[in-house]
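Re: weekly structure request thread

Next one in the queue (153 aa):
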Amino acid sequence: MEKKIDGKLLCTNKKAQFNYFLSDHQEAGIELLGSEIKSLRKNRCSLDDAFVIFKGNEAFILNMNIPVFQDRNVFSHEPRRTRKLLLHKNEIYYLMEQVKMKGYTVVPCRVILRRGLCKIQIALGKGKKNYDKREVIKAREDKIKVAKASKIR
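Done, posted below.
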């Protein structure tokens, strides 16, 4: 279920939709440095291998790639550093409980820039089996064939 996004969409995690059954989408703030937000505003970001972990009742995102801002070489940031997610305590407890009890994982889906603040959309994901992934590929190919057949007529 896709929601309308109010704000500027910076990047999406296309692999997340393919590899996981996503549910329970939430939006979280993210703690960034000045050079990171400048780099994000130039649409330079990647969520391909990113994932969320919990340490000491706090949520962190790992492997989110924000390239170094080219105009600021002296005090630049590390591109794949661990960044803290800004969530309410009850949201963190809920996500931690789901990850421990039901075998879900927390997957980052999108990065949005809204009113000057960077937000990240996270979701609970349950891993897909190979046969589920093959069904998705088959449905996509069938949709393309139908579109081509209707275009020819």
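The first helix runs from residue 14 to 19. The radius of gyration is 18 Å.
Next request, please.
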